[in-house]
């Protein structure tokens, strides 16, 4: 009997190992979903979409009465969560919202890797596992994938738009060009900092498909922009949409602790595995005699993800360094770099199979994280602040104002109340609410102000003024919370 080739023996091992690796990564995703209610910003982000289903405007006007909960992103990323209004428990709604984000994020990654594999389904599966491992090892991309956030819709549409261009096995026809153009534009209408994506896609089409299809693609982008933009402007009101997503967003100041070196450090795990792989792929391109630049780009369609990642860098750094910015901005760059590395490996047939598979395994081993806390996360779901505030509001409607729990109050009684960080943003940007506007978004007969244990006191000037006339009190049902009220108000 002839001994099996090393690559064949490795493939046999990989078939047995794949379910184990998949379960480990799935456990990490499940852990992130179940811990979602413990991250208090998920409640506020979900409230923005659900409030629309309750009849509240997504974008309140500068001088309008009513609650302000901080809608400074483009609309599509909020609206995909509006359907979760059918869920009347905040914890269930947040867990479902995080699960929806995970599906939107990882679904396109799976589709792309299954489509582009040139050397069999096993290699495609390991490409998906490697890409997912990088995403879950990166603080920024993991944040986007497993939280309620506009990033989920932005990543989904952007990756699908690039994936259509990357996975086409023939010259792109009008239908595929139009679909890719529309999805690329829709990513910007999910999150403004995705603006480089349509530019990157157009540049790729120019190099890979030539000037005629490039002009056609740009025309499809223009038509999509006009159509989608006009629809949102008409539905949501142009003045209010522009005030919240442009005027407010551009008036946020810089975040002092943000710098390039720290940003690279945050994403060091992802970069340390993806960048060397890209270097190997580029070395192969350098020695490829297939022709000029256009021929090489057309033959290596995974480059579209690298185009998107590179052009995303300045916008990601700008978003991350802005007040309120977080690592999720950098995670978008990581996502595209990871996709370029893993799809590049499985779309390069001349690469020896043993090297190809070894690199994919190396990525997984270097970035794999074992999930340990799923059971403990599930055990405390009934004690998270959203659930505590929800139960209290159901038992004592309007008695307390919860500055950090707009979703709990909305689901308990159908009323949207002021969100403290959003009030602070309005003040910081020079568009502070008037006393009449502020009061209109508070419970009409509240006696207490209640903040979760992890949130010592409100930070907006308007709520701080209210606290000047209150003192800490004890309130049954809100044990361990930071509760403020008049003398004697905490006993009932």
Question: What do these coordinates show?
Answer:
The protein is mainly alpha-helical and 492 residues long. The protein has 2 domains: 72-367, no CATH class; 381-485, no CATH class. It has 23 helices and 4 strands. The protein has helices at 6-34, 41-53, 76-79, 90-116, 121-137, 139-146, 150-167, 174-188, 196-209, 211-236, 238-250, 260-266, 268-286, 293-299, 303-320, 328-346, 353-367, 374-379, 385-395, 406-413, 420-428, 435-440, 461-467, and strands at residues 400-401, 448-451, 471-472, 482-485. It has a 4-stranded mixed beta sheet, with no helix packed on it. Helix 7 packs parallel to helix 9 (196-209) and helix 9 (196-209) crosses helix 14.
Strand order of the largest sheet: 1-2-4-3
β-strand percent reads under 5%
* Beta strands, count: 4
What is the H/E string?
HHHHHHHHHHHHHHHHHHHEHHHEHEE
Rg, please?
Answer: 25 Å
Low-confidence blocks of residues? none
Helix proportion: 55-70%
Notable characteristics:
mainly alpha, 23 helices, four-stranded mixed β-sheet, 492 residues, 64% helix, 2 domains, 2% strand
